[in-house]
What we know:
Largest sheet: 6 strands, antiparallel
Number of strands: 18
Number of helices: 14
Distance between the termini: 70 Å
Strand content: 15-25%
Amino acid sequence: MPSIRFNRNRVRLKRILGIRARLALLAVILVAPLMFERARSLESARSRQIALASEEFSTLVKHSADTQREVIMSVETLLKSSAYIRASAAGIGRSCDMLRASLPLNLPWIRNIMIAGQDGRVQCSTDNNDVGLDVSSRSYFRKAQETRNFVFSDFMLARPEQKPIIMAAYPVSAITGEPSAVMLAAVNLAWMSKIMSNLDGRPGISAVLVDRAGTVLAAPSDQANLVGRSLDSVPLLSAIAETAMSSDHNEGSMSFAAADGSRRGITFTRIADTGSRLIVSIDETRVTAAIDQDIRTAYLQAGFVCLFVLLGALIAAEQLIVKPINLLAATAKRFGLGDWSARATTARLPAEFMPLAKAFNAMAAKLAQRERELVEANDQLTVIASIDMLSGLANRRGFQSRLDFEWIRAQQHGGELSLLMIDVDHFKLFNDTYGHPEGDVCLRQIGETLSEIAASSMGFAGRYGGEEFCLLVPNAGGERALEIGEIVRMAVLDLALPHMTSGHQCVTVSVGVACARPNPSLAPVDLIEAADAALYAAKHRGRNAVVAHGFIQIVEDGTDALRAL
């Protein structure tokens, strides 16, 4: 019961608000653009502001990344030059002298340069405190020996002052092709941070240079406390730490919600020849805070205006639109229920609905005419479906319909009804001998002959199936049915259709005749079975014969009985 009540209420609500809601929506659509234009312009201004900030943001990131790359390239160039010196020098002492003399003063980010032997012991250094230091266990040293290429380490703390550095390594074997010393350089990360000064002091912007392990190598001076910390521990960047560090792309960007709820845009760039990445983020919320407030106010104003327009549209539409539509709907419902005379009354409709009413009336007239045409076409199809296309006679369906009709009529008037079942003798042999096309011609000629006999005897001829025909004769007794059967046999014989496999050398037919006086104790199928039995007897007697088997109702001692003729 609650479900039924709910469905009824829903249908009632749809009837009340269906067209009204649509009309109100139309009014809102007409008015809303005027109110939302301001919001749209503010949204456009917001987009332009974000685009300008993003453009400046991208320029800063590119400039900072390019500077970092230049630093790395300068370190790589210096180490390769030192490697050539070591490869060409006669001994380690000579190499050390040349190394100290070649250290450029315009590369202040290089803390010192060292030569480590194949065993990992520092043989020479621009800082004598590093001589004898064993770096054989350091991953950057082993990787340089294995790859014979330029290698950068992750974040490290230099001893004893514990200053943050990264180590660069280049093996002499990359030049000589044989295991040899490895050139090392300590890069001062404080200088790497100074390079990021163009990102310093900008509200809403965070920038860090991280190694492949996610440790912060450098940051602007206002974020210097981040150096040495893991990226996971930086609140504003922890959300993208894994994505930025695991990406296979050299650069990329993304947007995410930070832990403080602000919306931030991120750009990350891989520094060439290293596993380091420069990651810079911008707080979109701080950039667009003022204009976002204006947009919220504009949408609130638009909502109030749309509400008033909606109420006005509902009230005005009731009299101007809803009632005329209900009138047209009632007329359409009458027409749908079969009242083909239903037409829309134009006198009670506003002028705007006149074309619709006239169009409906024209459509109704055409549909009524189409309905009459469909009925006639359906009658014609019914007739066609009851015709055998080969013989031109009624098919089995048409014959059965006529038999049922004549049976009921004969039962009502107490008349007799005779049925002749006609079968072409040896027709399979005829087809085998002359072919199916000639067989069709034979059946067509027999059909034409039966049609003429049916017309002259007030009967109804049909093709029962295959080579079997039937002739239904109302108001005919057994004797008359036998005479018609003989007429049929002789008419087919007179056609003189050649049939060399038949004993008569021409096409013949066997005819089974049955006659009955329809009553409640009999059915049409009894008449058909009796005629079939008579046809079987005719074939059994040698074919080209007419045999009768009729039903005659007699009364013996007050008991109904049937007997054969």
